[in-house]
Specification:
The protein has about 300 residues and is mainly alpha-helical. The protein is built from 14 helices and 5 strands.
Length: about 300
């Protein structure tokens, strides 16, 4: 696990070379086809060297949820175990990791009409105001969700509208099912936050050079996508979409894209700080790979699987 631009892909590939592991992507944006540059998907060469499962499995018009991920990840992990290999999950969507480990409650199905209504309201008053509404009716859920986490705020309010109950109340009535075997948890974090901030800015500029605007424009011109879809609300894509709509100039798009990515990294680090049992490694450690290997080999040996 780790924030965006921390170097997770490179480390996962190194572990893949040294251990009998198969990789499963834990990224809510990399599941979507046609969204390659802005999601920092592994390159074709990287995927050839170390295939990642759960990449390019959805069209951007078809929303992907944490519940979808849990079902898909459990299926893929079972296949990997059957092949007598070890699943290695890698990515930055910490909520997906948490949902897989601790389970999700059985929540009511999405209601497109209610969702559209909530998105219209959010356009008018903003997500912090929508989060404040959630805090009035389900304070425990609101305390776990960042005010700018539009997708999770919207889903929590949708559950309230559809069921009359908050996610917290539903969870108490029907506790989620946790993993039978606790996973080994590693996090790659920046030693210097300012270095990460600079790296994020440099990477976003590199994405623009690679054709991020053209990538989003191809999605924009399809005609069946809109900025309310989860795929189009992803960091970078949302800002470029607004630029293509003529709502903001290019320079402002760049500034907002970098700022949004930094805010994402901050939320990811906040998640990690509250996540129990995580072994922390720093991205600048000259012996990073060796230390990770030593740690994993010891853990896997004690579990009798390596």
């Amino acid at each position: 696990m780790g924030p965006t631009a921390a170097g997770k892909t490179a480390l996962a590939m190194a572990l893949h070379e040294a251990l009998p592991v198969d990789l499963i992507s834990v990224d809510s944006s990399q599941v979507y086809r046609g969204m390659d540059i802005g999601t920092a998907k592994p390159s074709a060469e990287e995927l050839r060297q170390a295939p990642h499962r759960l990449i390019d499995i959805r069209d951007p018009a078809d929303p992907y949820s944490a519940a979808d991920f849990v079902a898909d990840a459990n299926r893929e992990m079972e296949k990997i175990w059957q092949e007598q290999r070890i699943p290695l999950l890698v990515g930055g969507t910490i909520f997906y990791f948490h949902s897989l480990e601790y389970g999700l409650s059985e929540l009511p199905a999405a209601d497109p009409a209610v969702r559209e209504q909530l998105l219209d309201e959010a356009d008018k008053i903003g997500w912090p105001a929508m989060h404040a509404r959630l805090a009035r009716y389900d304070p425990e859920s609101a305390a776990r969700i960042h005010p700018n986490d539009a997708q999770r705020v919207q889903r929590a309010l949708e559950v309230l509208e559809v069921s009359g109950q908050g996610i917290t109340e539903i969870s108490r009535e029907a506790p989620p099912k946790a993993m039978a075997q606790p996973p080994i948890k590693l996090a790659l974090v920046p030693e210097d936050r300012e270095v990460l901030r600079v790296r994020i800015a440099d990477r976003f500029m590199a994405m623009l050079q690679k054709g991020l605007v053209e990538e989003v424009e191809a999605l924009y011109r399809r005609g069946d996508l809109n900025p309310q879809l989860p795929a189009m609300r992803m960091v970078g894509y949302r800002q470029v979409w607004e630029y293509l709509e003529g709502k903001i100039p290019y320079n402002q798009m760049v500034e907002r894209g970098i700022t949004a990515t930094r805010q994402l990294a901050k939320r990811q680090l906040t998640w990690l700080r509250s996540y129990e049992g995580v072994e922390i490694f720093t991205d600048t450690d000259p012996r990073l790979r060796e230390k990770c290997l030593e740690f994993l080999k010891g853990k896997l040996s004690s579990m009798g699987v390596y």
